[in-house]
Design brief:
With 231 residues, the chain is mainly alpha-helical. Helices cover 84% and strands 0% of the residues. The chain has helices at 2-23, 32-44, 46-60, 64-87, 97-123, 127-156, 161-187, 192-216, 220-230. α1 packs parallel to α6 (127-156) and α3 (46-60) packs antiparallel against α4. It is globular, with a radius of gyration of 18 Å. One of its GO terms (cellular component) is plasma membrane. Its EC number is 3.4.-.-.
Length: 231
């Protein structure tokens, strides 16, 4: 019973947030089975990430700055971006800007959910610590996914050099914010909450704006509006 409670409390935040972002797809919802597959791919990339991070720690040492910016944020965001670009960017179902946000948050939340389960399993965490993880690391990964997906959506529906620029931003910006997040946690042992909470508020505020703007650029918006006018 205890094991079930631990696993359930670890799975709940990621699944709840995934449901939230899925329902935010206002005009043309994606096939649920594809979203679930991308979510499960987030599970799988945990293992190559762990292997790469372990090797890099042995190579570079355990410097807080290098660990936060390169080994943690860099490896994690690069692998998520790599999977998204190669499996989703040219997928037929990626047909509106918000889809980038949905698929990026799906893979990010899959990754964060496995991290959460591992943390809960090995630490036997109580309700309080699990709530903190739901509010911080899990939702943090979701916001990094929103940023990544927003610019991937821009790149998908923009031509020429601007497309490549947005594609580069889709990797660099979540990497930067993730690195800042990890840097605060690793270097501020006593006052980290004073910095993390404003950072999370800023990320959520910016993320909600990106979701709204991505939905507003949907080509299905006009179609749906015309259908509503006719009825």
């Amino acid at each position: 019973m205890l094991v079930f409670s631990i696993i359930a409390s670890a799975l709940a935040p990621g699944l709840a947030l995934l449901t939230y972002f899925y329902l935010k797809d206002r005009y043309d919802q994606e096939p649920l089975h594809i979203v679930v597959k991308i979510f499960l791919l987030g599970f799988l990339i945990v293992f190559p990430v762990m292997i790469l991070q372990r090797g890099m720690i042995l190579w570079f040492g355990d410097s807080p700055v290098v660990n936060s910016l390169i080994i943690s944020a860099g490896v994690e965001e690069l692998l998520k971006w790599f999977v998204l670009y190669h499996l989703i960017f040219n997928h037929i179902e990626f047909d509106e800007p918000y889809d980038g946000i949905l698929y990026a948050t799906a893979i990010s939340l899959g990754f964060a959910t496995v991290e959460n389960v591992m943390y809960a399993w090995y630490s036997q965490a109580a309700f309080g610590p699990m709530m903190i993880r739901a509010l911080l690391p899990v939702s943090g990964h979701a916001m990094f996914g929103v940023i990544m997906g927003y610019y991937i959506g821009h790149a998908k529906f923009t031509d020429g050099k601007s497309s490549r620029g947005f594609l580069l931003l889709s990797l660099l910006l979540p990497w930067m914010w993730h690195g800042l997040y990890d840097l605060i946690l690793s270097m501020m042992t006593h006052y980290w909450l004073w910095f993390i909470i404003p950072l999370m508020v800023l990320l959520w505020y910016g993320g909600m704006g990106k979701i709204s703007r991505a939905n507003n650029r949907s080509p299905f918006r006009i179609i749906k509006r015309d259908e509503e006018v006719k009825t």
